[in-house]
Design a protein that fits this description.
Strand order of the largest sheet: 1-7-6-5-4-2-3
CATH topology of the largest domain: Aspartate Aminotransferase, domain 2
Bound molecules: pyridoxal-5'-phosphate
Radius of gyration: 21 Å
Shape: globular
Order of helices and strands: HHEHEHEHEHEHEEHHHEHEHEEEH
Helix content: 25-40%
CATH class of the largest domain: Alpha Beta
Largest sheet: 7 strands, mixed
CATH superfamily of the largest domain: Type I PLP-dependent aspartate aminotransferase-like (Major domain)
Number of domains: 2
């Protein structure tokens, strides 16, 4: 019988160390490995190419994503950059119109110089996805729930449309985590993560991973992982692995608390809209129920008082911390227009300055609701 997610999170890739019996995979803090004769070794030669602590993480994440192969990177952006090495000059990539800001910047400010074109559409509208695919589209990079509007994309349908044109489908699964969503089972080709977020889960490490079940894609990505060299150090891999083991219990609490906070916000006069896929009137709720096993820990909302009110709330929070990033045990509040999404100002993708984004942590939900109540009280109507 295939083991359950919670069990695999703790055991896959993490058998006791064969040399010593250490129950926790050791941090192999070494750059090179002894060879018994030239090119004869125990599977490791140089630590950019492979390291046992990294291999443990790669195996564990691949298992949780229901994939065959995992690759770890120095950051989420390093993972996405390495996936972009699948492209050639003249290729076109289709992305969601509220894709992660760093991914947008990578495609527009870096990869465009290498002849890679990208375009951005609202991928909740499948006719627009279909219309935006061209003969040169080689990749669709989807993200769901999206950031910061938490739109839900229908991954199975997007994969069908993209595959009809022989484009590779990559999903940034950072927001849902594999506990709530397994895109490879929906027919997509590669999953990427910023492990900085829920997988690490404690806001103490920056990292990324890519997972696939295609041997061909894996071999190309593995070649580029080593050739470009954006690999994580063993201690960072160890931290992400430690986070992974509690992913299931953390995600359950993140989602439960997020629902509590979303429902509270919706009852407040100063709040004009609440974006949370767990709310039955969220436009993506039905698709989310089908393709996810939980709705995640991210909640966004707009204030009737607009930008001034958003700034006032952002400065008044006490349990929530005003900070970029997400996915840690502690609750964070972000003002996307001036923080995470500031680089989109003036572009067609710019974010409403009256919007706030919450990464709801695993503190006691009453304390989170109380903090929101007092912070909303600080906002001009
Ligand atoms: C944070 C994030 C990234 C980038 O990851 P880093 O680890 O910061 O490089 C990519 N995608 C999403 C959805 C993210 O939240």
């Amino acid at each position: 019988m295939k083991r359950h997610f919670e069990t695999r999170a703790i055991h896959d890739g993490q058998a006791p160390d064969p040399a010593t019996g250490a129950v926790v995979p050791p941090i192999y803090q070494t750059s090179t490995f002894a060879q018994s004769a030239p090119a004869e070794h125990k599977g490791y030669e140089y630590a950019r190419t492979g390291n046992p602590t990294r291999a443990a993480l790669e195996t564990a994440v691949a298992s949780l994503e229901e994939g065959t192969y995992g690759l770890a990177f120095a950051s989420g952006m390093a993972a996405i950059t390495t996936v972009a090495y699948l492209l050639r000059p003249g290729d076109h990539v289709l992305l969601p119109d509220d894709v992660y800001g760093g991914t947008y910047r990578l495609f527009v400010r870096v990869l465009q110089r290498y002849g890679i074109e990208s375009s951005y559409v609202d991928m909740t509208d499948l006719t627009r996805v279909e219309g935006a695919l061209t003969a040169r589209t080689r990749m669709v990079l989807a993200e769901t729930p999206t950031n910061p509007y938490l739109k839900i994309l229908d991954l199975a349908r997007i994969a069908e449309l993209a595959h009809a044109r022989d484009a590779v489908v990559v999903v940034d699964n950072t927001f849902a985590s594999p506990y709530f969503q397994r895109p490879l089972l929906l027919g997509t080709d590669v999953v990427v993560h910023s492990t900085t977020k829920y997988l690490g889960g404690h806001s103490d490490v920056v990292g990324g991973v890519a997972v696939t079940s295609s041997k061909e894609l894996y071999e190309t990505l593995k070649f580029h992982q080593n050739a470009a060299g954006a690999v994580p150090g063993p201690f960072d891999c160890w931290l992400v692995l430690r986070g992974l083991r509690t992913l299931a219990v953390r995600m359950d609490v993140h989602a439960r608390n997020a629902m509590r906070v979303a429902e509270f916000l919706r009852s407040q006069h100063g709040v004009s809209r609440v974006f949370y896929p767990g709310l039955p009137d969220h436009p993506g709720h039905e698709i989310a129920r089908r393709q996810m096993t939980g709705f995640g820990g991210m909640v966004s909302f707009t204030l009737t008082g607009g930008a001034a009110a958003a700034r006032a709330v952002a400065s008044a929070v006490q349990v929530f911390t005003l900070a970029e990033s997400l996915g840690g045990v502690e609750s964070l509040l972000d003002h996307p227009a001036s923080m995470t999404h500031a680089s989109l100002a003036g572009s067609p993708l710019q974010v409403d300055p009256g919007l706030l984004r919450l990464s709801v942590g695993i503190e006691h939900p009453d304390d989170l609701v109380e903090d929101m109540r007092q912070a909303l009280g600080a906002a001009p109507a």
